[in-house]
Structures are given as structure tokens and as C-alpha cells.
Amino acid sequence: MDIIICKDEQEVGKAAAALIAPFATKGGTLGLATGSSPLSTYQELIRMYEAGEVSFKNCKAFLLDEYVGLTRDNENSYFKTIRKEFTDHIDIVDEEVYSPDGANPDPYAAAEEYEAKLAAESVDVQILGIGGNGHIAFNEPTSSLSGLTKVQALHPKTVEDNARFFNTIEEVPTHALTQGLGTLSRAQNIVLVATGEGKADAIRGTVEGPVTASCPGSILQMHNNATIIIDEAAASKLENADHYRLMEQLKLR
Ligand code: F6R
User: Fold this and answer.
1) Which of 96, 127, 231, 242 is the most buried (most CB within 10 A)?
2) Which residues are the active-site residues?
């Protein structure tokens, strides 16, 4: 893993966008996350697009996850969210932005359908955030490290964290459709972004902990091309931060 420690959220976004942009210009397949973490990355990619520095016109994009029970026109669906926050502001073809069907009355069938769709693709670069409990996509602790797209009951802490987007906590769906850890690990490259002290334990577990289903992010230790881009606060519990800083300085390319 490469660990890049930046001074703040804006720098995290710039560093992540710089890694992602070359894949976009080549017409690559992008894996997109929702939530707060990738917002500065998306803002920087939008800025680069507007400045003529990157184009997404030949790209496809696949979301990591979707809430079970939300239709695509629901403002809180990830289908809608990714459009509002990112893809409506760039030149990607809207029909090429895919996500699991949260409105399918049979969520297990929707999971299988999405896994089959992804199995026929090769994601060039996957953007990830991470939950305070170490979840990536919606793979909560104890998720199979090689699991496929599935229906996941959300941890009460995840429901609480995501309640900020809804009017009341009761409105937050209790389940999500999510790419499994095995599914998302097939991406050629992974860029995980995290900011703030609330992510420091999850980052410590991901980077320095054992590889364990108790901290799903730790599966990235098994990935050949994973980059963890974090701010000082998210890095604050890393024991070997100085080593990671040195490794970045010594990198030849
Ligand atoms: C969202 C997703 C989640 C979030 C995680 C962090 O598509 O897959 O794993 O990345 O819950 O959320 P934020 O970034 O809002 O703190």
C-alpha cells in the first residue's frame, strides 16, 4: 500500500484526483463511492474537467452500493446522489453510470444481477471512503474478505452516521446492496480517501492492523495497487506515519 498523508481535505482531494484523472482520459472504467469522503476529490475532478484537463466522455462508472428500498428518484438514493455531486457536472454519458437496483422487491436478485454485471467488467480505478468502524463500501465488520455483491444489514453506528442526510433516523434504510470485498478487490487500482479524527481508528486498523474481517478496510493490505490518501487527523493514530512520509519522498515514480 502507498500511504499519502496530506495537510487537509482539499489536498486529499487534489492528490486523489491526480491519480484518477489519467484513467478517465483513457476512457477507463471508474468505481465510484458516495458519502462525504470523496467530495473534495469529485470537486477537484469537476474543476479539472471545466479547465479542459480531463474528459470522462468514454468512461463507464459503477457505484459501490445503494440503499435497499429507495427508488432512483429518491433524493437520498446513491443513484441520485452521485449525479448531484459528481456525474451531472462532467461529460460522462449518464446511461453509463451504473448502480445496484435498490428498488427491486427482491434485493437478493438485485445483488446477483449487479455482481453479474460487474463480473463482465474490469474497473480501472476504484474510489473508496471508509466508515468509522472500518467498513468499505457497506461491508460491515465480519463481512467475508472474499465476498461478492450482497444484501448487508447496516450497523446501528452506520445508520446513525448516515442519519445526517435524512429528516429522521427512522427514515434511514436498515439494509444496503453492496459490492463485496472480493468484488471491489478486483479493481486494478484502489484509492481510499479519509479525513478527520473520526476515521483515525479505522485507518490504523486498515494500514497497521492484522488483515481481519473485523476491520474490512484491512483487506486492502492484500491488494497490489492500493493507495490510502488521508489528512493529518485521519493519520493521527498511525504508529509509523514518519516511515510512510519518507516512503512517499523516496518514490521514484
Ligand atoms: C458509500 C460507501 C461507504 C462510505 C463510508 C464513509 O458509497 O461505500 O463505505 O464511504 O460510510 O462515509 P463518509 O464518507 O460519509 O464518512
Assistant:
1) 127
2) 65, 133, 135, 140
